[in-house]
Amino acid sequence: MSDSPPLSLSNSEDQPLTIALYATPVDYSMPMLRAAVEWLKTKYEMKSQSQKTQTAYRDALKSFRDHLLSIGLDLESEPREVALAAQAWVQHSRVGRQVSTSTINQRYAILSSFYKFAIKYGACEHNPIDYCERPDRVIEDEAQALDADYIKDCIQSIDRSTREGRRDFALLNLACLTGRRLSELTGLQWQHISMQGRTMRVKWAHCKGAKVFYNVLDANTTKILLSFLKTEYGDNLQRIKPASYIFQSHSKNNSGGRLSAQTISQIYKDRLGFSKVHTTRHSFAVNSEIAGASLSEIGDQLGHSNYQTTANYLKRKRKNTYGYAGKLSSMFGFEDV
Questions:
Q1: pLDDT of residue 98
Q2: Helix H segments across 74-162?
Q3: For 24, which DSSP code?
């Protein structure tokens, strides 16, 4: 068993992201250990990676190496032995719960990325993860793609005479018509909104992978959002502070603050009957296809870098302006406001 210390990343005032091996300097005579350090450096230097993603790479590799060391192995051990260890590690849960297939596959992907780098770096010859059996994705556990008529009935049943009803109606309208993710919806602020004639341009500043995405909303969705904002702030929207969240919490403890994931989930449960926020994202994709949008148009609108991901959505935008938004608005029942 190797007596080398586990990998970690530490912060310093001089260097925001410094690779460290606890109190022991990096032993560059160990090719795999050096490859690990260099791989982590590349992940921290990649501007397209979010902090959350970077941390996931670091924590996963550290945890996996700790597991290897505990059973007398290390990163450079015989590939098939490492593969068996990996199969056990990816299924481990600290709280004793069953690990989802998506988490298992994500862990495999991180380890495979490291070993591919190590092979390219010349530190090893084989990728142990190639020997691992990966589970099929469990579609039943995913968010549902709802039928347009079902969404229409749910939307029209919202009581918009209440403050919460107006907020939820506007939120679901935007979610259904753009297919944005939870963090993108909750992170939307007034400073991300600009008017272009009768339409509204939205900057999504909190997209997956630290990307920035833009939507030019159709006239009807613009009308719904403006009507909602005026009921919240009055006709003079110039009074809204730039950092104000579009969809705010109404609770006493967090009034005016960002909606929590739990609150959003409850809104979806109450209004649509499903608590997963990805429900509207999947519904957007499937119903866009029914409306006549192509795979590439839908993939571009969702911000997918690989259209296979879009194709997976469609199994079960063109850039900023999405030409099918008006048709979807009618299908979902948002036009009669």
A1: 82
A2: 79-89, 101-121, 148-156
A3: S
